[in-house]
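Quick start: what a row looks like.
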Amino acid sequence: MDDFYKIRRLPPYVFEQVNRLKASARAAGADIIDLGMGNPDLPTPQAIVDKMCEVAQDPRTHRYSASKGIAGLRRAQAGYYGRRFGVKLDPETQVVATLGSKEGFANMAQAITAPGDVVLVPNPTYPIHSFGFIMSGAVVRSIQAEPDDGFLRALERAVRHSIPAPTALILNYPSNPTALLATLNFYREVVAFARKHDIIILSDLAYAEIYFDGTPPPSILQVPGAIDIAVEFTSMSKTFSMPGWRIGFAVGNERLVSALARVKSYLDYGAFTPIQVAAAFAVNTQDREVERARLVYRQRRDVMVEAFGRAGWPVPPPAATMFAWVPIPEKFRELGSLEFSKLLVEKASVAVAPGVGFGEHGDEHVRVALVENEHRIRQAARNIRRFLATADETLHNVIPIAARR
């Protein structure tokens, strides 16, 4: 039986191949150090957990919740944007709570996409940025991920050569997987371009609070006029170590936010009310916990850069996010990121995310997550050093096989 239309548009999930190999190795007794999935190992701060448990004692909170988020949570997020970015938002019309930013992106794509629409998406980027639109019937046109003059030239080419003209542009800074940062001046230029060409901007700001050097990353909504065309997505998963709680936000242009809220009203009743109350409590009161998490990730970043470098695999230090975007060692580059990631599991007991899973332009890199403690990161570096010491032998055995694929 043929696959359904939308399933045919989705390629095999690259990360699943590494996950299967990882599970098989663990079943055989291997101690796999998992630096692949961006799944925070830090516990949710206890005060947030306590607030959720307290509210859950009230049976009235066990009823259906609000699809677009309870009022207190939307007010909390509007308050955060005011404090952090100086951006004034109406919590009634310009803020929607989502079941994580991933769900928000996917349902926004459903809300605004007509079959055949052209959407501009950086490559490499987080998969939902492209596949949310592909599942909605759009055509994705890749543009470079680096936020520089080349990005703006790519926008000009896309408008000139795309038929029909692009309807939406995805931005993601700090970027997953590349950890690239954008400046407010870059956002100003992109907003001016998008307004001129009637292009919607969807900005993924999930890593706004995980930064290490210099000033905090800006929001595109700080640009005057951006709110006329833009919606921004954030998440509590990394900021407050709440990945399993599934709370995020979409904020910005009233028409776009309303479209998302309408789609969601047919699909869900929102997160469990005690989770939403605890999330509002976190946004309003737990800034110190955010600072603690940021310090932990920075220390892990520094350990990884130092230990992996000594092991013979230089890691460009990321300025933000909980990921390093690391070039594959030259000797292994022709294998591609998937085969190299498999080798790391088999020969070094270390799991990373193959760069090709984020787009074909990521195939010379792997993404390494800061989701193990410093001791385990150093252990991973020792394993990698031993693996690299046998590189010639490994390549002799592997490349002829890979060449026959």
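That is the whole record. The domain at 5-43+289-403 is CATH 3.90.1150.10 (Aspartate Aminotransferase, domain 1). The mean pLDDT is 93.
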